[in-house]
Recover the amino acids of this structure.
């Protein structure tokens, strides 16, 4: 093959690659880090006392595993405060079932500190095929009358991303 044919072939290949990349950049849609259906946030202050027991945080997320079972990774994060000699506990309900504490991940979400802090936790929740709704719940563990607060939190559940 002559030098000019090699050069022409190389230029044609480079043009095809550049054209393909350019076309992809123009028409492709960006992938979301977490699809909208797999995240929920709530803003405002919620308070709870030990006597209230398990309470929903209003952060249920529904996702669809399609035809296969998957392990979902859930993350809960918020600004929290809790009184002395008490702690905030976390549990999860799947598809309206009983709240499960320390089954999918840690149960202790916050202990008393001098100031409020941003707290977060992660859980690994096995889910079967099809649609599922996962809801985080919270409660106070401590003496009668102890309380805690949850402010401006988000919950994500990642099972399948494309």
């Amino acid at each position: 093959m002559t030098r000019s044919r090699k050069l022409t072939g190389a230029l044609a290949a480079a043009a095809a690659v550049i054209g393909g990349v350019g076309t992809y950049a123009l028409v492709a849609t960006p992938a979301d880090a977490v699809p909208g259906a797999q995240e929920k946030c709530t803003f405002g202050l919620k308070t709870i006392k030990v006597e209230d027991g398990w309470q929903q945080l209003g952060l249920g997320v529904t996702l669809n595993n399609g035809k296969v079972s998957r392990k979902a990774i859930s993350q809960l994060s918020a600004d929290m405060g809790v009184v002395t000699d008490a702690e905030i506990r976390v549990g999860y309900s799947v598809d309206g079932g009983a709240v499960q504490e320390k089954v999918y991940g840690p149960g202790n979400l916050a202990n008393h500190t001098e100031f409020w802090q941003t707290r977060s936790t992660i859980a690994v929740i096995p889910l079967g095929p099809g649609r599922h709704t996962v809801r985080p719940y919270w409660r106070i563990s401590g003496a009668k009358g102890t309380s805690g607060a949850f402010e401006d939190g988000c919950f994500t559940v990642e099972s399948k991303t494309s």
